[in-house]
Amino acid sequence: MRKVDHDSRREDVAAAAASLIANKGLEALTTRALAKELGCSIGVLSHYFHSKEEIVIAAFRWADQRIDLRMQEAIADDSPNIESFFPVIKAGLPLDAESDLEWRVRLNLHTFALTHDTSLQAEREKNQQFRDLMTGMIAGLQNKGHVTKEVSAEDITSIAFDLVNGMAKNLVMCPFDEREQKAEYLYKLIEMLRPLPKP
Amino acid sequence: MRKVDHDSRREDVAAAAASLIANKGLEALTTRALAKELGCSIGVLSHYFHSKEEIVIAAFRWADQRIDLRMQEAIADDSPNIESFFPVIKAGLPLDAESDLEWRVRLNLHTFALTHDTSLQAEREKNQQFRDLMTGMIAGLQNKGHVTKEVSAEDITSIAFDLVNGMAKNLVMCPFDEREQKAEYLYKLIEMLRPLPKP
Amino acid sequence: MRKVDHDSRREDVAAAAASLIANKGLEALTTRALAKELGCSIGVLSHYFHSKEEIVIAAFRWADQRIDLRMQEAIADDSPNIESFFPVIKAGLPLDAESDLEWRVRLNLHTFALTHDTSLQAEREKNQQFRDLMTGMIAGLQNKGHVTKEVSAEDITSIAFDLVNGMAKNLVMCPFDEREQKAEYLYKLIEMLRPLPKP
Amino acid sequence: MRKVDHDSRREDVAAAAASLIANKGLEALTTRALAKELGCSIGVLSHYFHSKEEIVIAAFRWADQRIDLRMQEAIADDSPNIESFFPVIKAGLPLDAESDLEWRVRLNLHTFALTHDTSLQAEREKNQQFRDLMTGMIAGLQNKGHVTKEVSAEDITSIAFDLVNGMAKNLVMCPFDEREQKAEYLYKLIEMLRPLPKP
DNA sequence: TATGAATGAGTTTTCATTCAT
DNA sequence: CATGAATGAAAACTCATTCAT
């Protein structure tokens, strides 16, 4: 048989699909366009996916996981403090071309999920896991005195979560050269989480 | 007279289209489905709109404007203070069935705009207008001592803007009975805008 | 609206489909070929049928009912006797071009039903009704002394039923000019049903 | 040696194809499904057959010959009489699972032949041979006084031939436990072939 | 021989749009 | 104005066949 890595080929397809979704929109993701983007025949697609919907889902997962991975890699494992947040959050925002593409796909996923129950369920579960993780981290920081206890860990999580989603949506609509600056206030907000100096 | 009828008919179509978008997704908005939703023949649509894209845009505008209108109506014209924010923000969030539908459409619009330049431009201009308006209002409140000056009016606007967008996206994914509670932290955040009592 | 009789249009489609099935086989019944046969565009088909399978079923029913109708019309209502059988059976056999087409479709249906439960069920029910009807008729003739009681009405029905099916299959494989002759023995067989003259 | 392997492999393919045709229908016989049924890769098929049509024909022949073989084996070579018919006819009907499968394939073949001239020709020739053989046998029995001369050998052959085809089609549509009983009348019919006792 | 990835023509199906009534 | 039948381009999907490994 010809040597091909099935999983890696699937990922190629997913990445190409994600690229189309990001640049032309979900409705432009046709099997023809995708085959062209991949430089192969349309028949190839059915080797790796049973239907177009499967491809769409794979593209969504591909982009979603890359954003998450990017953030995980930015997490400093040892002795986290307020400063640790900055790189993680930067990693989670669409500040360069690569993450811009991924966020465009993720935003499509959010809309898609609104009317696709399975995706909606998956989305909600993923969010909940993420929130639990983050709440735990913040509570840890609070206990170590790195973060103010004036706001509950849950509320900080909620703020961060919604803010990142809202800002990401906002950023992908802006030219790249305005994004860093637009994201700046977020860092100021983080600063406000420092505990007040004890009198 | 005839003009009124014509416009009101166009709005009916837009509303029906919005309903379909919200409940079934943009890809489920077909001319047949729309005619069925409206209880009329497909031929009618071409009397009021030249193409399907026009209908989509009209649905987007319809929903968008209703959210904005809802917020404007909640604005207390005279002597605004921190408390004035609460009803406005509530009015701007998808907390009931009606606003839920509108937000679902708006979220579709956001995704749509990512790959449709005209809509993107319109979206950005609208946002800018809204931000300018809000920044002005907050600066006024700051001058009157109702809002802390520790954070700039621009930053408060940015926070509010992104937060509402992120939260709205979040809320439409939740059951209605969890929404009020999920939105609660926003009100706490507003409380933090109060100026510190002078020592 | 354009004046069209929906049901009659459906029948046109079914008839055209039946013609294709009879002449080219079920696998040659494509939407393209059918549209061509009908002299219309492929889109028309979806106005009258939701799927190709529906069309296939309609074609089967069309042919099936025409054979049955042909037989019913040949039934002499009043005072039936042995002679009454001849025209009915002739009407039920593929002896001319029209009934040949219908039988070809019916034979396709029989094969189709083997692996399509719904059709199989329908086929069996129809057969049972037909058998019950025929058994009743024969019993009546037996009581009136027109038909021998040496063979039970049920057995005569079974013989007739299987014989007609087998013979029809046989006849459609023959040139038309051989068919009448091939069917002749059936009439002889019917003669044997006459009761023996009482000694 | 190698030739044997080759032929046996071809038969495996034909048998697997026949199984698919019988259980899922001719349209379900795809190269992929066949490879799966065989437990091998699709590439194998092209080693043993040049095209799918060849495989279909082979499957038809496989089933057809097995029915014929089954009947031949049931023929009592020496001193045949009326009783000799019973086991032959039973062997020729789809009364158990094995012959059921073969008859399902044969019925597919009959339909297939309607629109495939080569198969039709083959079918007709085979039938004619069979009829000639049977007519000869019956004439022999008539001469020996085992079978009535009231009906010509040709007519008896025709009756038997059509009856078996019709009944087979009938039986494969019934549950197995009803088949023996449904076939019973055939044996009664054979009894009627006995010559009348001379007065 | 055996494999199964790749091809691409062909099929069903969907759908915005047009237009005769 | 309203209707919905008709159109046909374009979509997703199927599948026999080929061929590099």
Automatic annotation (TrEMBL), chains A, B, C, D:
The keyword DNA-binding applies. It holds the Pfam family TetR_N. InterPro entries: Homeodomain-like_sf (IPR009057), HTH-type_TetR-like_transc_reg (IPR050109), HTH_TetR (IPR001647), Tet_transcr_reg_TetR-rel_C_sf (IPR036271). Keywords: DNA-binding, Transcription, Transcription regulation. It comes from the Bacteria. Residues 30-49 bind DNA. Residues 7-67 form the HTH tetR-type domain. GO terms for molecular function: DNA-binding transcription factor activity; transcription cis-regulatory region binding. This is HTH-type transcriptional regulator BetI. It comes from Zhongshania aliphaticivorans. The lineage of its organism: Bacteria, Pseudomonadati, Pseudomonadota, Gammaproteobacteria, Cellvibrionales.
